[in-house]
Structure formats: C-alpha cells, structure tokens
Design goal:
Length: about 170
C-alpha cells in the first residue's frame, strides 16, 4: 500500500508530509524534489521510479501531490486517491479561512497560539457527521413511513389479513 504522502509547492518545498510505513525514508522527499520537480526535462509520466521506490504524482496549479510506495500497488486506486485528496483539500478550505480570520484582523496579526485557536475553530470531523446520520437513520425512516398514506393502508391490510387467520378469531366469529 501507500508508504507515504507528500504535498509540495511549485518550488519543491514540502507543505505536508506523512510517512505511513517504515520502508519509506525521509530521503524520499528529496529524491522526488530533485528528480521530478527540479528535473532538467519535464517529467511526463505520472509514475516515476527512483531507487526501487515508486512515486505516483499529480500536479494541480502550483501544488504537487505525491504518493510513495515500494510495493506493487494498484495504480488506478492510488491516482483515484490522489484526486480525492485534492478534492477534499478544496472542500476544506473553509477551515483555513476560519484560521486566517482568527489570526489576522485587518492585516494585523492577532492571535497565533494553537491552544487559543482551537477554541475558535468549529470544524467537526466527518466521522461525527456519519455517526449522527447512522443514529438518525431508523428515526428518519420511521417518520417518513408514518406520514405516507400508502404505507399506512398497507399496514392496515396486512393487519386485517393476519387478524383473520388467527385461531382465536375463527372461534369468536
């Protein structure tokens, strides 16, 4: 699987890096920078192999996204992941804007302490939203079904047919 994920700017400076497996060293960051970003000739292939390490990379505007692995992975899956990461970064720019609003006020630096900024940022994780939807699922379905006329009639017909087949009902009728 993916051993590391690196995000570079157009100059080759690392913006974000995360190494997930021990087989990927910190030198992979520099190898990609030298052989792809600062290469004398433009690298056209989206997959570059350097010292038995595969770099799957995508360039968008001035940002490079690179997934690094030493294993044989499904290239389509890795590229789908890279494009989804790009989409998620775009979708979460609201959080970055919230941070900038708290740090700067009319261009004057105000508060850059991490602890203080955590109290101002109201971003909730995706997991909590998913959990909330799962918990509300049965209630939503029940509320929807109660208001539907055809569901109510179907329940009445089913109740009547079951009621007529009861041995106790046969004796009393």
């Amino acid at each position: 699987m993916i051993g590391g994920l690196f995000i570079y700017n157009h100059k080759g400076e690392v913006l974000i890096s995360r190494v997930y497996r021990d087989d990927i060293g910190r030198n992979a960051v520099d190898a990609f920078r030298v052989n792809v970003i600062h290469a004398r000739q433009q690298v056209r292939s989206p997959v570059t192999n350097i010292a038995r390490t595969s770099f799957f990379h995508v360039k968008r505007s001035n940002i490079w996204l690179a997934a690094v692995t030493k294993q044989n992975v499904n290239a389509a899956m890795v590229f789908e992941f890279l494009y989804k990461i790009e989409e998620n970064i775009k979708n979460n720019f609201v959080l970055i804007y919230e941070l900038l609003d708290e740090i700067l006020d009319f261009g004057y630096p105000q508060n850059s302490e991490t602890g203080a900024l955590k109290t101002f940022i109201t971003q909730q994780g995706i997991k909590s939203q998913v959990r909330k939807r799962r918990e509300q699922g049965p209630e939503r379905i029940a509320a929807t079904c109660r208001t539907s006329a055809w569901v109510h009639q179907a329940w009445l017909l089913r109740a009547q047919s079951v009621k007529g087949t009861s041995p106790l009902d046969r004796l009393t009728s």
